[in-house]
Specification:
2 copies of one chain form a homodimer. Chain A is mainly α. The first copy, chain A, contains 11 helices and no strands. Chains A and B meet through helix 7, helix 8, helix 9, helix 10 and helix 11 of A and helix 7, helix 8, helix 9, helix 10 and helix 11 of B. Chain A binds a DNA duplex (19 and 19 nucleotides) through helix 3.
DNA sequence: ACCTGAACACCGTTCAAGT
DNA sequence: ACCTGAACACCGTTCAAGT
């Protein structure tokens, strides 16, 4: 007996799934817990989605869809690319665990394909081979997904190390940081002491990486033109 | 009773783990199956490794260690970077599922830190901020890991779609490819028809992406110098 | 020091049966 | 058409007990 006789539809399964991802993360996400949240039994979910994987695919596709809707394509191709990827990032930031979902999803869902197509369109007039365009788009997409993934991992690790003493993972990390047997300067340690690790996932770092890739694509086009 | 009285050591647990990853992939990897392969009971593994995650961390660290050993640092910084990342890629290709292992591992293991340090050292003399150096290295590392990950996914999906008719995932994919409701040219479809998707994971694509990022870093340094 | 047996608290998924 | 109960074949991990 369901509370308030609420209808179980694909749409509110999806809504509950986002909620659950928000609450417990993707590692602990289970079909049983999702069913609990909806006040139904776990096997019922399988009438609406043929597997957990296909539910995840649907969620990933929703992210792609929203990114597409939020995109505004204006200005030069560099600007278009920059803004589009920034939009993708903000959408990934909005939906919990969406970077992981996109990462483990093969881009076969329709909206994901349209997203890739839109990125390819921006580059289509550049004087480079199709193969190079493809590489460029893959590079950009991987970048934004991996960036948000790292951020998530960083937060998770920080949270886990929060209440530990010197014997914990934090202590081990600091120790190996100090004792790195490297020839030449211990650059990592220097950066750690400059609190640079706190910047992981920051807007500033995001922009830098994105600028690197776009400048690289630009250079590729320049070389072809000769 | 173990065959041939073989000693169970961390080293041969690790060896067996690589074997198991090779045989069944990371999705189906389990501590019980690993124990079977070693002819011991699953709980015995927990005397040597405190968790599955820590075993995976150790494996990831081995990959970093080998990449470090294989690296030869010669030439200009662009060349050093290019060669180093290429070496990392070849090592990832050698160890089964190592891209996934690196992806889900936070770089706290010593050799992984040394690896990052080595990459940072290559950039250390460039006239850019520490933050930019850090972004650059993160960009490169994410690139090579994501590249090999995509390749693995692509193979997995292709294998799964192998023996399916029009009704299967392949049919669905082709259909949505044809029917993409896009404004402007369907670039994705064009590329598919040019067999460009088969190139995913190719050496050629790898080089292109790597060149893009390194050219981008180069540009960053040039801008700072003014 | 190193290993096992039994158990705990979970999974994803299937399927006959219910309404 | 949509949902449930019971079950299958698994997981990771703990822990008292054995040698």
């Amino acid at each position: 007996m369901r509370i308030k006789n609420m209808q179980i539809t694909e749409q509110n399964i999806i809504k509950a799934a986002w909620e659950l991802l928000e609450q417990i993360g993707i590692e602990d996400f289970s079909m049983r817990k999702l069913a609990d949240l909806l006040h139904i039994q776990a096997p019922s979910l399988y009438w609406h989605f043929k597997s957990k994987q296909s539910l995840f695919q649907t969620l990933a596709n929703e992210v792609a869809k929203e990114a597409l809707q939020s995109a505004k394509l204006e200005g030069e191709w560099e600007e278009q690319l920059y803004d589009f990827v920034a939009v993708i990032r903000s959408v990934i930031g909005k939906y919990p665990c969406s970077a992981q979902l996109l990462m483990r999803t093969v881009p076969s869902e329709p909206d994901y394909l349209v997203l890739i197509n839109s990125l390819l369109q921006i580059l289509d007039h550049l004087p480079v081979s199709d193969s190079d365009k493809f590489s460029s788009v893959a590079c950009l997409l991987n970048y934004v997904i991996a960036f948000e993934l790292d951020k998530y991992e960083q937060r998770r690790v920080n949270a886990a190390m929060k209440d530990e003493g010197d014997g914990g993972a934090q202590g081990v990390f600091l120790q190996s940081l100090e004792n790195l047997s490297v020839e030449g300067p211990n650059v990592v340690r220097r950066m750690y002491h400059d609190h640079l690790f706190r910047e992981v996932g920051s807007d500033n770092m995001f922009r830098t990486g994105l600028k690197i890739i776009i400048a690289g694509i630009s250079q590729l086009a320049r070389e072809q033109q000769l």
